Amino acid sequence: MTDRLVFRHALIIDGTGASPQPDATVIIADGVIQEIGGLRTKAPKGARVVDLKGRCLLPGLIDAHVHPGNIELRNTMTAKLPPAVYVLSVCRNLETDIQLGFTTVRDAAGLDPGFREAMARGMIQGPRLFLSVTPLSQSGGESRIAGTGPDRPAPRNALNICPEICDGPDQVRAAARRTLGRGADQIKVFADGEVLASQESDRAVPGQWKFSVEEIKAAVDVAEAGGTYVMAHAYGPRAIQNCLAAGVRSIEHGNLMDDETARLMAERGVYYVPTLTVYDLLLARGREWGLDDTSQAKLEAVGRQGRDALEAAFRAGVKIASGSDIVGPAQALKGRELAIKAEVLGPMGAIVSATRTNAELLGVADRWGTVSPGKLADLIVTARNPLDHISLFEDGLKNVVMVIREGAVIKDLIS
Ligand SMILES: [Zn+2]
């Protein structure tokens, strides 16, 4: 399974933001980067040698906000798929993700832990998964079936994964504990209105705030006791500031962020995951994919502000992570996030955000996320230099010519 590999003449972009290192020799064994040397470094006997002349070696990409389980644009539609179709569609998405060069992804809720199990059994080749499983929402929140008396959560998919509907710190605490018990790696909370309505009469809009500080704090306490953290869906200053006060680790979307909120995020060392690709795609193609009027109106209210928020966060010195948040079709466009981000952060900044910064957010930076000796060999090779052609990641299926996960070659278009 694990290969002894040597790369020659690699141009390394190591994920730290350092200048690219030309003509490097990289020795990989036992799933780990053993050595990075120059032209004179000797290859160990019996190793497979790959000449990377003209190509670039980077850390495997990380997407910190994905939904490979959101097969249709709306959860209500995904929930109606025949379970076999649903499962096979998710498998295709996961297989595509790793072919694009994403060796790690963080699911922002809904994915069944069975997919991780299937991967561990070698039944699917996919990225490492960090799962949120059942997100925490509240009564009157979006993810519900209306008109059934007390709020009943609507399933997100055909495997009947439902959000946890919880009110008050005690219920939130119990819901967070149940979620960890299901195998979640982190807790996802909905702290603000959602763009994609689960029903036409949906009134909650992005920019409102949902959970109180005390409620979010209860989730944070449970997460921290379990050795993990909370990621929060939030758009507006009030929702974001509630999350900051409660000790949340990452703010997802944040499109309506203002300078003051950005300053507070920087001060507290909270990560920002802007998710620009999903708005780009929905604004361009949402209608064609069946976006309803309610969702379209909400999209109009936040879709174009994502870039301003990213600029505000960048100016304030916030730690900027990277997530595409693609729902429905077009899952293969995850790499577009780097190109969009590069407009604000530059190509190197975009690469760092999708590698080292995302690894820090996930708490794995000591093990992978950069190209350096001692790190796990999660690596990709690109056909050209992404610093000159950052949009190459948009067509990762073609332009990412090698993918290595923990030393195992998953994709190889070179030999
Ligand atoms: Zn999302």
Descriptive account of the structure:
- It is a single chain.
- The chain has 2 domains: 5-60 and 367-412, Roll (Urease, subunit C, domain 1), CATH 2.30.40; 61-334, TIM Barrel (Alpha-Beta Barrel).
- The protein contains 12 helices and 20 strands.
- It has helices at residues 75-78, 83-100, 114-120, 168-181, 213-225, 237-246, 259-268, 276-285, 293-302, 306-316, 336-362, 396-399; strands spanning 5-12, 21-29, 32-37, 48-51, 56-59, 61-66, 102-107, 128-130, 136-137, 144-145, 152-153, 164-165, 187-190, 230-234, 250-253, 271-273, 319-320, 379-382, 400-405, 408-412.
- Strands 1, 2, 3, 4, 5, 18, 19 and 20 form an 8-stranded mixed β-sheet that branches. Strands 13-14-15-16-17 form a 5-stranded parallel β-sheet, with helices on both faces.
- Strand 13 (187-190), helix 5 and strand 14 form a beta-alpha-beta unit.
- It is globular, with a radius of gyration of 21 Å.
- Zinc ion is lined by residues 65, 67, 108, 325.
Beta strand %: 15-25%
E-strand count: 20
Overall radius of gyration: 21 Å
* CATH-derived architecture of the largest domain: Alpha-Beta Barrel
Shape: globular
Please give the domain count: 2
Span of the ends, CA to CA: 18 Å
Q: What would CATH call the class of the largest domain?
A: Alpha Beta
Oligomer: single chain
Number of helices: 12
Low-confidence stretches: none
CATH topology assignment of the largest domain: TIM Barrel
- Chemical compounds bound to the protein: zinc ion
Secondary-structure-derived class: alpha/beta
Major sheet attributes: 8 strands, mixed
CATH superfamily of the largest domain: Metal-dependent hydrolases
The average pLDDT value, as a whole number, equals: 94
